Amino acid sequence: MTYLLAPVRAWHRPLMVCAVLMFGLVLVSAVGTAVDGRTLLGESVWVKPLKFGFAFGLYAGTLAWLLTKLTRGRRLGRWLGTVFAVAATVEVGAITVQAARGTFSHFNADQSDPVTLALVPLLSFGVMVIVVAQLILAVVVLIQRTGGAALNRAIRSGLALATFGMVVPVFWMVTEIHSRTVTDANGHPVQMYQGHGIGDPDGHGMPLTNWSVTGGDFRVPHFFALHGIQVLLLIAAVLAALAAERVWLRDEKVRARLVGSAALGYTGLVAVVTWQAWRGQSLIHPDTATLLALAAVLLLTVGTTARVVVTARRASARRAPAEPVTASPAGRPEPSHLAR
């Protein structure tokens, strides 16, 4: 597994600073949810900073490691990493300020609040900077090999998924306009120009995530797609570790095919939950069409994985040297391990 990792001191420092700040925010927000009773649309004002801190902390750490794998365009990659780190810090910082004030960050169209008027452009601009930096970085990674075949496939597939996860909310924000007035944690009416729900703009209620239980929610595909890279990298790492004991896994091509099968299945999952949200359907209330689509993805993934495993095991068995045969006392040939 050592080829998967690089010394932490070699990781991209601005992104590592960003990750540390984000995980620090997670701790602060966790305390806030326990001691601060204010709510926005039914959830603690500190839930959003907590979720954004965790998501950006995890992703910034992943990018900090990934940039050590670049063999071409390293200067551009490191510059993009710095841009991403700064934009993410500003974005989440603005979210945290608004949360502490007991009001909304994204979609807030309140023209009477000078702080909101100053922060909303930062939020909008920050999202675009993050998306553009992600797109360029994805291209930089796609034009080169960043490691062995399995690792390379995990990184490429994961970055493609993450890019999709960042673009999807932007698309919905500009195509699904739901102007309305809601109440903030201070009891003040706030004009909103958009919502995260589809069918029910302010839908919520799911434990922990607070995703909508009354309609579609574009945060669902955003979450699954954004963190696909961590899932695929974990699978690549586990396969590399298992290769020490499983002879048939020592072939890099076999591990790459298994990562490819996992990427295929995960992409199918993202496609299904995106389609489900698009139709205004809650993640926990799938209809027959959604269940059939999920079943098809599962069968395809299991089938491709099984084929790779069976083929690899057979190939490994054929490559194994045949044991020498010796004669038994009765004159019958027997394997050498029995003769001994």
From TrEMBL:
Annotated region Disordered: the residues are 320-340
Name of the featured protein: Uncharacterized protein
Q: Which UniProt keywords apply?
A: Membrane, Transmembrane, Transmembrane helix
Asked whether the keyword Cell membrane is assigned, the reply is no
Q: Which domain of life is it from?
A: Bacteria
> Can you tell me where the transmembrane regions are?
50-67, 79-100, 120-143, 155-174, 224-244, 256-278, 290-310
